[in-house]
């Protein structure tokens, strides 16, 4: 369980978090104390709120028996927690073949690669596996260097692509680019991201809403301008839909796809948190009108139980046979592959992407009705079951204190989510959630918002 995010991660100890932690039960406090004695501290992970003792379906339960619908899940819980089909696949594979050393392959790894390429957007027919999303981004960067002969990259400020030096270099979050961590990779150019509600170029219309015709040209042309001025850029690395969440304006990605083609720049899409059905399509880029040259998946690919990521690429990018661009100990681990294969089969066979689209549209309608009568909400946006609620103060500025207070008011009622970029309530329920459970969560969220509104009015 984690608190609000100032970027993509979780802040340390704000007033509301401190109060929540102080109110934790004795079992949770005891475990947190033990935790603090043995783990190195780091931002986003410490201090912990409490300890989880059980996770099943859409629910997590802390050490003192308090239960929460998990609308956070670190984006791994598309199938909820402990999905029986994933557990069965893992246990079966453990009995049949628990490990495959490098230089050997195995049937589960091949089967997962074949299934991914069969489902992927057209042309993405080659795969490498990695133990996590950050490592998969590193593979994509290395592959782009070899394929293009260029080391420079273009990416967006505020984006998160992983915590490794390469991933943090193309990422745009200040927390992961702190100068105390030392120099990052050279040649990484960044431009402002698409963010229509808070357009970095300041293009609202007369009504205060974004003027998409103008704004789209501004944010897209900033990237094309960089490509024009720096023709040695080998890769544009980006999220097709930002996990904040923020959607690109219409026509954004087709324009940048064309710019990449003109300059021989590879388009690398990072779908680590947003892929595999979360947005209402199996792949988030299916909404974009553009097919990447390299696609990176992760998080939910391991079924919410095991760490697994994948890099999918065009066949003509298979040009690094004499180099070690991944070479991970568990790159063809049969247990990880079995979990990934079972995850894909559940999502496809149970129609969970379509279900996410339907439930997400319903939730967006409900939330926009709620927002219409609550001044704390500036915008509701999202795709599928990845939804953001932008919290604002009376002057339209980010309402960070209200967002944090809403998080803990919701936790008290039994709903856990994260706050992104300080003021965006980010709701990411499992794809298996029922309509009744979704309604209950929205009721708890509404009550939390009203509690915070009343408290602020009386303060």
UniProtKB/TrEMBL annotation:
Alphabetically ordered keywords of this record: Aminotransferase, Pyridoxal phosphate, Transferase
Keyword Transferase among record annotations: yes
InterPro entries linked to this entry: Aminotrans_3, PyrdxlP-dep_Trfase, PyrdxlP-dep_Trfase_major, PyrdxlP-dep_Trfase_small
Annotated GO MF terms: pyridoxal phosphate binding; transaminase activity
Family: Belongs to the class-III pyridoxal-phosphate-dependent aminotransferase family.
Protein name per the record: Aspartate aminotransferase family protein
């Amino acid at each position: 369980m984690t608190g609000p995010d100032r970027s993509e991660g979780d802040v340390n100890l704000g007033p509301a978090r401190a109060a929540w932690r102080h109110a934790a039960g004795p079992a949770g406090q005891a475990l947190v104390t033990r935790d603090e004695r043995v783990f190195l501290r780091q931002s986003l992970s410490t201090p912990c709120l409490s300890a989880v003792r059980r996770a099943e379906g859409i629910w997590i339960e802390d050490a003192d028996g308090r239960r929460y619908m998990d609308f956070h899940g670190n984006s791994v819980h598309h199938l909820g927690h402990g999905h029986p089909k994933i557990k069965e696949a893992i246990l079966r594979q453990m009995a049949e073949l628990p490990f495959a050393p490098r230089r050997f392959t195995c049937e589960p790894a091949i089967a997962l690669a074949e299934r991914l390429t069969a489902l992927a957007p057209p042309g993405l027919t080659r795969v490498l596996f990695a133990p996590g999303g950050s490592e998969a981004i590193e593979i994509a960067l290395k592959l782009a260097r070899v394929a293009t002969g260029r080391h420079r990259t273009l990416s967006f400020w505020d984006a998160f692509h992983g915590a490794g030096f390469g991933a943090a270099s193309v990422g745009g979050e200040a927390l992961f680019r702190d100068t105390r961590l030392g120099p990052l990779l050279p040649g990484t150019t960044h431009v402002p991201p698409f963010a229509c509600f808070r357009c970095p170029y300041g293009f609202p219309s007369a009504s205060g809403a974004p003027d998409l015709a103008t704004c789209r040209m501004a944010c897209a042309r900033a990237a094309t301008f960089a490509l024009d001025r720096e023709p040695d850029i080998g890769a544009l690395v980006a999220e097709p839909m930002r996990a904040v969440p923020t959607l690109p304006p219409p026509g954004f990605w087709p324009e940048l796809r064309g710019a990449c083609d003109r300059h021989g720049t590879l388009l690398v899409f990072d779908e680590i948190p947003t892929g595999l059905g979360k947005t209402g399509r199996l792949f988030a880029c299916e909404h974009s009108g553009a097919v990447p040259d390299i696609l990176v998946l992760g998080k939910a690919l391991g079924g919410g139980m095991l760490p697994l990521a994948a890099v999918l690429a065009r066949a003509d990018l298979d040009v690094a046979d004499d180099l070690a661009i991944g070479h991970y100990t568990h790159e063809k681990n049969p247990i990880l592959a079995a979990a990934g294969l079972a995850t894909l089969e559940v999502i496809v066979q149970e129609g969970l992407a379509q279900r996410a689209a339907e439930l997400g549209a319903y939730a967006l309608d409900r939330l926009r009705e709620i927002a219409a009568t609550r001044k704390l909400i500036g915008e509701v946006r999202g795709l599928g079951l990845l939804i953001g609620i932008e919290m604002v103060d009376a002057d339209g500025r980010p309402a960070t204190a209200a967002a944090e207070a809403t998080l803990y008011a919701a936790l008290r009622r039994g709903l856990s989510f994260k706050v992104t970029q300080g003021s965006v309530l980010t709701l990411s329920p499992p794809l298996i959630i029922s309509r009744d459970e979704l309604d209950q969560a929205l009721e708890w969220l509404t009550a939390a918002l009203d509690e915070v509104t009343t408290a602020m009015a009386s303060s």
